[in-house]
Amino acid sequence: MNTEKIIRSQAKKSLNGNWAVAVSGLFVLLAELFLVTVFYSILTGLTGLYDGEKLKPGAEPIMIIILVFTLLLYFALSPFENGFYRLCYNIASDRSDGLRDMFYFFSGTKQYFKALQFNIIIALKKNLYSIIGFAPYIIFEIIKSIVLMTASSASLTQTFGVVEAIIFAVCTVAAVIINIRLVIPEFVFVDNFEANVFDIAKAISKVHIKEYYKLIATFIIWILSCMFVLPALYVIPYLTTSLGTTSKWLINMYKEGKTV
Fold it and tell me: Is the pTM of this model over 0.85?
């Protein structure tokens, strides 16, 4: 049995008796996203910014204000996401406190503001990594626009369309691969939010990032099945707990001075 199968087996064993809690935690996350979406819809509806599906002329400043408030609400609720990582990490560590783990970062001002600070940094890193991953696509779009402005034809447009689809697909995969690195600090943070999270995560990823890639690769079919929505209720807790199991061992190795 290879390492990935062992990790998945351990995660399943940890989830025995905890599936209801893990799925309930996922529903809390979905409720957070639903609340943010409803908040945005109510504001745009009350302000009457749209004429059908089009934004009314001159409505851009109000839309920017609405987007800012929606973003603020999202970050205000984002510690629920840290709570879900904590829930799955604690399940993997056999020390789950049940659904209360989801609300841990709302239990005190110190935890809450540490979580907000961490989430803002993670969001900035995700955007940066995504820009790096999509850099070839952005460059291609610039070149395509320049070329089509000077020499446009049906065959050339069609060729650009095919190449664009390929580059977009490759860049999407690249951006996902780069962003997987940010899974490690998520678990380091919920293990000890007062630690030097990104320094520890960097030390771990320097040696062990391949373990995360290989583990996630074994979930590819499962992840694709989430397009049908219902499988996500099984896949997301299972995958997150499996990643938490890997992180548990690697964080403990780091604490014992065995990682670097």
Answer: yes
